[in-house]
Design goal:
Layout lengths: L5 E3 L2 H12 L12 E3 L2 H7 L2 H13 L4
Parallel strand pairs: 1-2
């Protein structure tokens, strides 16, 4: 099983981090989250019952696109 690390940060700091990585000015540190949310509430919405059902379906059916 793969562990997904998530981070919570402001939109502006997430954008600055992403842009610095895209420009080659920064490399993500080992163990640094690869998925970011602007709040715990936004993370909770992403894990709603409906979204968990969709993720389970994707996992079981393994669509090509």
């Amino acid at each position: 099983m793969t562990t997904l690390k998530i981070g919570i940060d402001s939109y502006d700091r997430m954008k600055a981090r992403t842009m610095a990585i895209a420009r080659g000015e920064r490399k993500p540190a080992e163990g640094e989250p690869s998925v970011w949310f602007v709040s715990v509430a936004s993370f909770a919405r992403a894990l709603s019952e409906r979204n968990r059902e969709l993720l389970a379906r994707l996992e079981s059916e393994k669509p090509e696109s």
